[in-house]
Design brief:
Layout (H helix, E strand, L loop, with lengths): L17 H4 L5 H21 L3 H8 L3 H8 L8 H7 L30
Helix pairs in contact: 2-5, 3-4
């Protein structure tokens, strides 16, 4: 297998949040921001927009959109990312539910289908 010593490799199950697994501060906020940026990227791709066109819609520069889509979103707050979605005609909804039988911290999950 490509010369890797697989028998010496340590494999750990993810918590579901790579930022927490890596010990990053504010891991939950980073995960939420990553999911929001992923959704923005998905919308841009679905619409076949070029970065320059997406930038005009979002009120950003093309280099800012490029950095955002490459995962460089540290300087963006969750609130700022949430404010970008209406530019694509998307409403933003939040829901808070009690966790049942869960020992994992977290606040982001896919909404339940109705």
């Amino acid at each position: 297998m490509c010369g890797l010593a697989v028998d010496k490799m340590k494999i750990e199950r993810s918590s579901g949040n790579v930022f927490a697994d890596l010990g990053r501060p504010d891991a939950e906020a980073h995960l939420l921001k990553a999911k929001l940026v992923s959704r923005i990227d998905e919308i841009i791709r679905q619409r076949g927009l070029k970065q320059v066109d997406a930038a005009k819609l979002l009120g950003l520069s093309q280099p800012d959109v490029s950095r955002l889509l490459r995962g460089n979103f540290r300087e963006y707050s969750v609130e700022r990312l949430l404010r970008l979605l209406p530019a694509f005609g998307r409403d933003v909804q939040s829901s808070f539910e009690s966790r049942v039988h869960s020992d994992q911290a977290g606040f982001w999950s896919k909404p339940k289908s109705r």
